[in-house]
Structure formats: structure tokens, C-alpha cells
Amino acid sequence: MSLKRFLNQAVSSWMNEDGPASEIVLSTRIRLARNHNRYAFPTVFTKEEAEQTAQAMRTAVEQAGYPLEELKMQDLQGLEKRVLVEKHLISPNLAEDAGSSSVWLSDQEDISLMVNEEDHLRIQCLFPGLQLKEALRKALEIDDAIEKHFDYAFDENFGYLTTCPTNVGTGLRASVMMHLPGLMMTHQMNRIIPAIGQFGLVARGIYGEGSEALGNIFQISNQTTLGKSEEDITEDLLHVVDQIITQEKAAREALVKSSGIQLEDRVFRSYGTLRYSRVIESKEAAKCLSDVRLGIDLGFIENVSRSILNELMILTQPGFLQQYAGGFLRPVERDIRRASLIRERLEMDVSKDKGGSDL
């Protein structure tokens, strides 16, 4: 496998699979924060300690026997790092580092081990749809294998020790990416977001803390890591997510019942915008992609696959657009290229339809 493959393939292999509740839950992520007991934490460690940690991680991965490939941050250009962030393979924090930081990736891109980010090690597992228990099981399996060769910083009273106090304990961040257009259109998210905080959860944008919920996509995750087991944390999250799914389905049904023709009109106007626009900004593209995805889920649109929308969600991000262009693009140039790319991909998808005709 090569760096080019990771950068040029917009959709990770695991994203091509359908998972439980995939019409609402796009993906599940489990992330575990860990540090080596021997070295200072990344916020204060020396360059020598950073290199020693990175080497210790290489030894641990090799001895654990996982077929992963290492990409060193110092070997990547800024645009290449941005693409990896847009694919959720690395964090924005890791992308900013040019020292001894790296990421280990699986062929399917469902496993990502970030080294020398905020912590020495962050284990990330990604699954399609709602698969919290399955993702946790996989992450803990990797965690156990790495721990045999990488001495974790652990306290009997506080659990796993991390750079940020909010991660102390299990070091677990469990999250699901949800498409919630129904709740947004019926103005219920303003009520739901503070309500889930009572369960120790938080709703953020598509790229986590500080990011915007573009395309009606929200990342629901836990905030509490201390005082509960990994299983209890994921069970609490699963319980709340199940309720949100139920409410989203009810909101969609209510919209169809009360204003079905208006909703259908909105969906097809957005589809028309995507099919025929010559210039389109990222926010408008995200909004239209959300509408079309909803139209597919409700049966309004039949000859566009949900998978093509997953691809376009990533392909139309600034990093990918410039990666394909081979260099920096001004905002207006990105908007033109984004519109062209969307038209081409949708036309390819429609041509695969047995009838070969437009809607």
C-alpha cells in the first residue's frame, strides 16, 4: 500500500459497507487514549523522548502482529495531512505536528493508531452504521495486544493517565456520526442537544469539537471517562442514540405527512442544484447532499445510491479538491471544481441505473 492510495481514495473501504441503522447513523467510532509509563507526556516531552516513544510504538505494532502501515507527519505536506483529516484518519491536532508524530493505518482504514498526538497513543476503530459494541470489542482487542509491548501509564485509583484530565479513567471516547435532517427541519435539535448533556454526552459537528454540523450531520459522544467502565459508557451512549433514531424517524414521518409535497420539492431542487450547478460553495453542497440523502431514504429518489453521497461528502472537502487538482486552489476555483466533480459523479451514478434515464 502507498501514501497515494490513502490520499486518492475518498471513501475508506469500511464506508462502502452498510451497517445497522445506516439510514441515520453514518458511522461509529471508538477511540482510546493511552500513554507510555516511561516517558513524559507529549505536551512536555523532549524531542528525544518523542522519538523514543515513536520507536517503542513501532516495536509494539510489529510484535502485536497487526498489518498496519506507518505514515510519518514529517514526511507529509500540509495538503496531504488535510486530506487525512477530512477522511477522519487523523485528528487536526496530529496534522499540526511535524516532529516525531505518525499514524498507523490498516488497509481498510478502519483502524488508525495516532502516535504523539495529545497523548502518546490514540487507538481509533471505525465501523459503518451503529456498531458501538463491535467497535469497542475491536479497540480493546488492539489495546490488549499493544499493551503487552507498550507499558501504559496506569493508576489503580484513577485508571489510564492522560494529558487532558477529561480523558483520565478509561481514556475512552465513543461516538456516532448521525444524519438528522428531520430533527433539524422540525427545530427539535435545540432541545435535544442540551438534554443529552444530562447523560454525560455532547453533540458536535462532523469534525468534532469546534466544528460545524454541516449537512445536518452531528457527532454524538461521551464526555465522562472516569467512574464508569468502557461497557457502561458505550451502553449509555447506545441508549441515547436509539432514542434519537426513534425521534428522527418520527420527525421524518411527520414531515412527509404534514408537508410531503413541499419536502419532495425541496429534495428535487437540491438534486437539481447538484446535477446542474457550475459553481457551488461547500456549505450549499453539504445542505443539498443532506436533502438528497433524505430523499433517497424516503423513497423520493431511486436511481442515486447512498454510497455515492458518502463519497461526495469527502470528495467535495477543500483538501480533496486541491489534492485532485494537484495544488492550491483559490476559493472560487474550489467552488467551480466542486460543482464539476459533483456533476460528473452523479452522472456516472445515474448512468449505472438500468433504465439509463434521468429522474
From TrEMBL:
InterPro entries: Arg_Kinase (IPR023660), ATP-guanido_PTrfase (IPR000749), ATP-guanido_PTrfase_AS (IPR022415), ATP-guanido_PTrfase_cat (IPR022414), Gln_synth/guanido_kin_cat_dom (IPR014746)
Keyword ATP-binding: yes
One example GO MF annotation: ATP binding
Broad EC category: transferase
One GO location term (cellular component): extracellular space
UniProt keywords, alphabetically: Allosteric enzyme, ATP-binding, Kinase, Nucleotide-binding, Transferase
Segments traversing the membrane: none
UniProt domain Phosphagen kinase C-terminal: residue ranges: 24-251
GO biological process: phosphocreatine biosynthetic process
Binding site for ATP: 27-31, 88, 122, 173-177, 204-209
Swiss-Prot/TrEMBL catalytic activity: L-arginyl-[protein] + ATP = N(omega)-phospho-L-arginyl-[protein] + ADP + H(+)
Superkingdom per UniProt: Bacteria
SUPFAM superfamilies assigned to the protein according to its UniProt record, in alphabetical order: Glutamine synthetase/guanido kinase
EC number per UniProt: 2.7.14.1
Description of activity control: Appears to be allosterically activated by the binding of pArg-containing polypeptides to the pArg-binding pocket localized in the C-terminal domain of McsB.
Record carries keyword Cell membrane: no
Motif RDXXRA motif of the pArg binding pocket involved in allosteric regulation, residue range(s) on this chain: 334-339
Function description: Catalyzes the specific phosphorylation of arginine residues in proteins.
Family to which the UniProt record says this protein belongs: Belongs to the ATP:guanido phosphotransferase family.
Name of the molecule in the record: Protein-arginine kinase
Organism: Jeotgalibacillus alimentarius
